[in-house]
Amino acid sequence: MNLAVRDIRHNSGRFVFTTLGIGLLLMIVMGMGGIYRGLIYEATLLVDRVGADLWVVQGGTRGPFAEVSRISASLEDRVRAVPGVANARRFVSHTIQRVHQGRPLRMVVQGLSWPEDRGGWIPLVAGRALRQAHYEMIADLSLHLPLGEKVRLGKDVYEVVGHTRGMVGTSGDGLTFFTVSDALAIQSDVPGEAVRLERAARRARLEDIEIGRLQPLLLDRAAGPSGSIPALSKPQVSAVLVTLQPGADAAAVRATLSNWPDISVFSTQEQKDLLLSGMVDKAKRQLGLFRVLLIIISTIIIALIIYTLTLDKIRDIALLKLIGARNGVIGGLILQQSLLMGAFGYALAWVIGQFTFPHFPRLVVVERSDLMSLGFIVLVISTLASLLGIWKALRVEPNTVLSA
Amino acid sequence: MSAPAVEVQHLRKVYGSGHTEVVAIRDASLTIARGEIVGMLGPSGSGKSTILTAMALINPPTSGQVMIGGAAVLDGPKALVDLRAFRRQHLGFVFQKANLIPFLTALENVQIALEVNDTAPKAARARAMELLDYLGVGERAGNLPVALSGGEQQRVAVARALANNPSLILADEPTAALDSQRGRQVMELFAKVAHERNAGVLVVTHDHRTLDVFDRIVDVEDGMIHERPPSQPVQSS
Ligand SMILES: Nc1ncnc2c1ncn2[C@@H]1O[C@H](COP(=O)(O)OP(=O)(O)OP(=O)(O)O)[C@@H](O)[C@H]1O
Ligand SMILES: [Mg+2]
């Protein structure tokens, strides 16, 4: 005969409410684990999807995600000349926060190396890939920009032509895809007044030095567009993505590139490791700390409720001892109640999570292995939580029955 | 002649110590044979419950011996056997009230006593049902104790006390919470159990109207047991 279940049925109110509370706590523990997995997933999503074999970045940096990396766009052509390289693409990525229709719009601007890369690799859920070199964009659904929407960024207006789902940058902001030149224009947009001031400043600097006075024509050049001044560098990109030829020796290509002192080379896996060890690591520790605290709180709550349930039936336990029940029967009663509370709480956490996690602002990824390890933890804490009650029950004297 | 159901010799029980010391039992000796029902009377605080709980192995005496079914069980406070195992195998108990586990049905309350003594659940259930029928509460088997009247609860408690065929049944004021008619029914049940099942039965009672059911009566006064001479006519005032 199972005493634990019969007692719970008799005392169901308290048991149900406590289990509900435990379920909510465990749901948060589960959710936090899921948020951590989500962070990893989102952080590495772009690196994974972009499908590069090697990442060429500014020498000495660990860019383009972990820190700023700036390299000349022409590096693309140098890399293409290396034997074994099938293709090289410019990579531009930066986060902007603008206001669109009165609400803040925060997004990651991602440049596609037009015309070789038109975004064919991007999983679209609606619309189409880019079809022209300018003024088109693909936006993630999380940005709530409908197809056909016109978005002003800098001096130009871009039309949303395609949608992705769940494509976010390392911080969870929705991704947008433009051609590289549009992405750079958005990044380096400066107001007209700033341009005029810069031209005037160039002119003033030139007038101060000898060559300016000797070559008056230079003054006219200096006041012109920056693209026509050879001394000024062209816009720079964040990285160059290398795709290798099938069967090419990745190590050899890498060795060649590593000999160039102006760049650093990383594999996709190394890029992921950089992301995870850097930005995700602290979030992981923070979430981990909260999970540990919540698990401790759950243990204490289960322990206290099991303890009070035990106190409530201390006379019944004394009576069981009086009629000769072994300690195993009594300890088992309490342990089983604790385990049932943990198990129901866990099941409840899972069910509630199924409904609530999709509505969390950031992605929650609940993995099977995490579910199993949390299940094991619940098993352990339920067992620990029963110890206080068991200790109390085993100490009670059978003649307590008589002192009513 | 088999060994007596219970035999206690020179029991002494002192509660507390120093200036809070209470001598609850001074020097008590008593023997109850199997198949015999003995009534125990005495004023409040005279030590009846203390003697009974010492025999029940839940309140060890300060000194003196307790033998049950011929086996030495307690020597003063010292246990000579596993008391809990001994209780489940050889003893049955009925107290004034709150004898039953509130979250178990009448049937389960009897069944659990059998299961803790290693009877298989199915057999335990059948035997529990049999006992409830024997005590006339078979129809109430599926009810929780709260749904039973005081008399029915005590019958279930008696059924549980009988579950493991004990050689000794101890009852402390089992009818105190019952009206006189139901009280008498329960007392007659105890007599029936003693005679039909060959158990020694000791009943502590204040009810002078049911003394006729006892084979023998002892009086407790000031921590001492006095045997009432059999010649003395049973009062029925
Ligand atoms: N746990 C205890 N601690 C201290 N003194 C106790 C304890 N139990 C009983 N006593 C004392 O021992 C004496 C005998 O008590 P006992 O309960 O055996 O009497 P009783 O004859 O059963 O009385 P009643 O008819 O009222 O039930 C009393 O003076 C009582 O106060
Ligand atoms: Mg008493």
Walkthrough of the structure:
The complex is a heterodimer of chains A (404) and B (237). Chain A is of the alpha+beta class and 404 residues long. Chain A is 52% helix and 18% strand. Chain A has twelve helices and twelve strands. Chain A has helices spanning 3-10, 12-50, 75-80, 180-187, 192-208, 210-214, 216-222, 250-258, 268-312, 314-322, 327-356, 368-395, and strands at 54-58, 71-72, 85-100, 103-112, 124-127, 136-140, 150-153, 156-164, 174-179, 236-237, 239-244, 263-267. In chain A, strand 3 and strand 4 form a beta hairpin. Chain A is elongated, with a radius of gyration of 32 Å. The two termini of chain A are 27 Å apart. The model of chain A has no long low-confidence stretch (mean pLDDT 88). Chain B has 237 residues and is α/β, with parallel strands linked by helices. Chain B has helices at residues 48-55, 83-90, 106-115, 121-134, 150-162, 180-197; strands at 6-15, 22-32, 37-41, 63-68, 71-75, 78-79, 91-94, 168-172, 200-204, 216-221, 224-227. Chain B has a six-stranded mixed sheet. A five-stranded antiparallel sheet of chain B has the order 2-1-4-5-6, with helices on one face. In chain B, strand 5 and strand 6 (78-79) form a beta hairpin. In chain B, helix 4 (121-134) crosses helix 5. The model of chain B has no long low-confidence stretch (mean pLDDT 90). Bound molecules: adenosine-5'-triphosphate and magnesium ion.
